[in-house]
Amino acid sequence: MSTETAPEASAAPQPAAAWSGKAVIGFACAVIALVTPAPFSLIAAVLAISSAVLSRRDLRTDLELRGTALSLFAFLLGSAVLLFGLIPAIPAVLPFLLRF
Questions:
Q1: Would you say 19 and 64 are in contact if contact means Cβ atoms under 8 Å apart?
Q2: Is 21 helix (H, G, I), strand (E, B) or coil?
Q3: How many CA atoms lie within 13 A of 58 on its CB side?
């Protein structure tokens, strides 16, 4: 009979990896940009793109952070909202640009 016992596994749960706050803010701004009317959606889209770019930098330097998909989604959705929001303004601005 052996009195040796197996090593006990630690009962304490491992802490979950932290989310990037900038990625979460970028995702929220992208969703807000999608559902708000034109002038506010363009502002929210710019905020979503800028916070997504900043969060991508943080995510590359700190590998423990989570939120890569949120950051990518915020950048793509913010860019799409900004692009489709500015397309109607192109015909109004184009004559002034071609004059120079």
A1: no
A2: helix
A3: 18
For the chain, report the end-to-end CA distance as a whole number of angstroms. Answer: 95
Please report, for the chain, the start and end positions of each structural domain, with discontinuous segments joined by +.
21-98
Angle at which helix 21-35 crosses helix 68-86, to 10 degrees, equals: 30
The stretch 5-19 carries a mean pLDDT of 71
User: pLDDT per residue over 15-54, tens digit each?
Assistant: 788 999 999 999 999 999 999 998 899 999 999 999 999 9
pLDDT, residue 82, reads 94
Contacts of residue 40, Cβ cutoff 8 Å, sequence gap at least 6: 32, 33
| Rounded-to-integer distance, Cα 30 and Cα 53, Å | 13
Which position has the token pair 């330097």?
Answer: 61
Higher pLDDT, 65 or 93: 65
